[in-house]
Design brief:
By secondary structure, the protein is mostly beta strands. It has no helices and 32 strands. It has an 18-stranded mixed beta sheet that branches. The chain has a 5-stranded antiparallel beta sheet with strand order 22-25-30-27-28, with no helix packed on it.
Length: 393
């Protein structure tokens, strides 16, 4: 049975004396849900796939034509508590096979992502749980910059999988940063239900299989962009011509969930939901905390930038302000930390030290939007507005 809440971090296993399907893979139990690593997580997005049709308020369909298959929205169905990507031998859009998938309409970034899935039986299909921009009409969208692959599995080798992080420059142009586990033998039959997790943070990405850490990519925001991305659940004919004798078949997802623990508010993009200014602010040529993100500055005394996160749960958080060190910076900018009406102040000197996150201390905060950080120009030099973060402790 699916759980709406998390148990302590132990791998729940449902005993099931399943016979191996083929290929010398040993019989095994079926993995149930794992859980995010550590405490303080709040479920912020998900789909249990318990309906009778795909929730098109949450999902777009993958509809591109690639490798050996065309992808069709008609191939994605929901019933019996699972999302099925139906794999077929049929002629469509110039291909002899059809696959499909769904792509979340909501964009997400740091947090813990988890799905429970099983691949099809029969070679020729490439199934994936991954994060990237786009709406499913192409895997080369213009906003393609960050790609995080929770799993990539080729059904010709049903025990093997890979985890990756790739950078792109948009529209299929590859970027300079690539991390990968390489394709490895899990020792499991991935045609049975298994749980896959992605723990994405500012310091890197950790990949889990049935609750066990399998690979870590040290992907940091100074290396490449850390974009807000969509969740992709897909299966296409790729790598080798599918075995038509095993069709029709299906790749299935039991659920997908996303939990959040840390909260970032930036001055641009989706993370600017809680950002506001007063006074005159201008675009800066300096880059922000994640590569190529913009920054603004103000030189008039009293100009203020404010960041107000929406905390999904009460708890203890350490608060950080991103400092920009530059010769023309403000040596006496005023920083105010408002904790539901209790305000503490400090001074930020942008002319000394180095750029980076500056801690404003650790405190208990209530759920909601009662906390805020503001930065006010002193009128000496120019103060720079970038981002703040509330990190759960």
């Amino acid at each position: 049975m699916k759980r709406a809440t998390r148990a302590p971090r132990t791998l729940a296993v449902v005993a099931a004396g399943l016979l191996a399907l083929a290929g010398g893979i040993a019989p095994q139990a079926t993995a149930a849900e794992a859980s995010p690593p550590g405490d303080g997580w709040t479920l912020a997005f998900g789909d249990e796939f318990d309906g009778t049709a795909v929730d098109t308020g949450k999902w777009s369909f993958r509809t591109d034509v690639k490798a050996y298959s065309a992808q069709r929205k008609e191939n994605v169905t929901e019933s019996g508590g699972s999302l099925s990507i139906n794999l077929k031998k049929e002629t469509y859009a110039g291909k002899d096979f059809t696959g499909g998938g769904v792509v979340s309409k909501q964009r997400l970034r740091y947090g813990y992502y988890e799905t429970r899935a099983r691949i099809n039986d029969g070679g020729g299909w490439h199934s994936s749980f991954w994060l990237m921009g786009g709406d499913g009409s192409t895997t080369f969208p213009a906003d393609q910059r960050t790609e995080v692959d929770g799993f990539e599995i080729d059904s010709v080798n049903p025990a093997k999988l890979a985890h990756n992080v790739h950078s792109w420059k948009g529209s299929g142009s590859t970027g300079p940063v690539h991390y990968g586990s390489g394709t490895y033998d899990s020792g499991l039959d991935l045609r049975q239900w298994h749980t896959y997790g992605i723990d994405w943070s500012e310091s890197g990405v950790k990949f889990y299989l049935d609750g066990a850490l399998k690979y870590t990519a040290a992907y940091t925001p100074d290396q490449w962009t850390h974009d807000y991305t969509a969740v992709w659940l897909t299966s296409i004919a790729y790598g080798t011509v599918p075995d038509a004798t095993r069709l029709p078949s299906a790749m299935q997802f039991d659920y997908v969930r996303y939990w959040q623990r840390d909260y970032y508010v930036d001055n641009d993009g989706p993370a600017a939901y809680g950002y506001s200014t007063s006074g005159t602010w201008s675009s800066s040529s300096l880059s922000g905390w994640t590569k190529d993100s913009p920054m603004t500055y103000a030189c008039d005394a009293g100009a203020t930038a404010t960041w107000r996160p929406r905390l999904r749960s009460a708890g203890t958080y350490e608060v950080f302000l991103r400092k920009t060190a530059t010769p023309g910076g403000d040596p006496a900018a005023r920083v105010a930390l408002d904790n539901n009406g209790t305000v503490t102040t400090s001074t930020l000197d942008e002319r000394t030290g180095s750029s980076g996150w500056t801690s404003l201390g650790t405190r208990s905060y209530a759920e909601g939007t009662g906390a805020a950080v503001s930065l006010t120009a002193s009128g000496t030099g120019c103060v720079h507005a970038d981002a703040v973060k509330f990190v759960r402790r």
